[in-house]
Structures are given as C-alpha cells and as structure tokens.
Amino acid sequence: MPTLTVEGVGPFEVSADQRLVLALTDVAKVDQLHACGGKARCTTCRVEFVDGEPQNITVAEKDLLAARGLSGVRLSCQILCDHDMTVRCISRLEGSGRADAGARPADTIEPAPVTWVEK
Description:
Elements: E1 3-6, E2 10-13, H1 20-27, E3 46-51, E4 56-58, H2 59-68, E5 74-75, E6 85-89, E7 116-118
C-alpha cells in the first residue's frame, strides 16, 4: 500500500486506487476543500507536492490549471494515490469563509472519460 504523508498531519497508508482528495478527507481527516465535488472545475482542492509528484496529469487538470494561470500546484481530485507521496494542503475549509468543503467527490476520477498525459 502506498504511503501518503500530509505535511503537519502525518503519514497514512492508502489504497493505490484512491483519489488523493478522498485520502485527504477520509483517511488523513484533513478539511480539504472540493467545492465542485471533485470534477476539475474549481481548483479549490489544490495541493503542493513536497515529494512524489505524479508525472502524469489528466487533460481536465492540465487544461484547468492552464486556464487559471496556476503553476506549482496540483488538483487533488485528479490524482490517484498509486505511489508514495508527500503533500502540503493549501486549500482547507478552515479560514476559507465557506460553509462547507463541498459535495463529496465520487470514488473514481471525474470528468469521464479520464485521459492521462505527461505533465
């Protein structure tokens, strides 16, 4: 099982097919934002990688990050925990002013069809 290390929170064993956003909320118990429900529409689920950044990216994530002019961050809703990784959570409910983190993301990456490209 891969190890997800969340900076300031700790290491956690996670399932290799689990979405990072769900590993953060369900396993690490981080109040990670995901306002669009994990559909690569809003960028509220962004994280910074300290180590183990995936070399592949979904087309939906790549396009949204480019459209928003964001670099140095990734969308946790578009990443699988298929290897060891260390992340810094930079988009959390606490202090956001939002009423809630967002609708629970599905267990599988959306939007379908999921198309992977090199980062």
